[in-house]
Amino acid sequence: MSDRWKDPGVLRGAVSGAEAFSLPAADGMAGSFEVEYVVTGVGVSEISYTTGPGDAGEVVVEGPRLPWRTTVRMTGAEAVPVLSVMLSEDGGRIESVIRVDGLEAMRSTAAGASGTSVCVAEPGGAW
């Protein structure tokens, strides 16, 4: 992982509307935190979300039934909650939300044919 991703300020402004949150620390190491992903609306062809750091921590759900929701537990300072939703070619309209430890960290909407919504819950700030 490059050093630029370890700087929590690097994502600030890259995703408008992102609220910062801080990861709990235990003995100098980042602790675990609960992440809830929620998607509502119509016309979704694919949802992908992170479950931890790295490519191995990504899950793809094709043709999900809406409303859709899942909860994961993440651990470590490099675990960044990301939720990506792609609409079908026929279009639709969705709202996606990430909550960290019960607090809303990011909300996004998408509409239209093949529209995409991406939420990144930026670590490093204070809730």
Write a structural description.
- The chain is mainly beta.
- The chain has one domain: Lipoxygenase-1.
- 3% of the residues lie in helices and 50% in strands.
- It is built from one helix and ten strands; from the N terminus they run αββββββββββ.
- It has one helix at 3-6; strands at residues 25-26, 29-30, 32-42, 44-50, 58-62, 68-75, 82-87, 93-100, 103-111, 116-120.
- The strands form three sheets. Strands 6-3-8-9 form a four-stranded antiparallel β-sheet, with no helix packed on it.
- β1 (25-26) and β2 form a beta hairpin.
- The radius of gyration is 15 Å and the shape is elongated.
State the major sheet: 4 strands, antiparallel
What kind of assembly state do the chains in view correspond to? single chain
Secondary-structure-based class equals mainly beta
Total number of domains: 1
The share of residues in helices is under 10%
Instruction: Estimate what percentage of residues fall within beta strands.
Output: over 45%
Average pLDDT figure: 80
CATH class call: Mainly Beta
CATH topology: Lipoxygenase-1
Global shape = elongated
The order of strands across the largest sheet is 6-3-8-9
What is the CA-CA span between the terminal residues? 26 Å
Number of helices: 1
In the CATH hierarchy, what is the architecture at level 2? Answer: Sandwich
Low-confidence stretches: 1-16, 23-29
SSE order, one letter for each helix or strand? HEEEEEEEEEE
Strand runs, count: 10
Radius of gyration: 15 Å
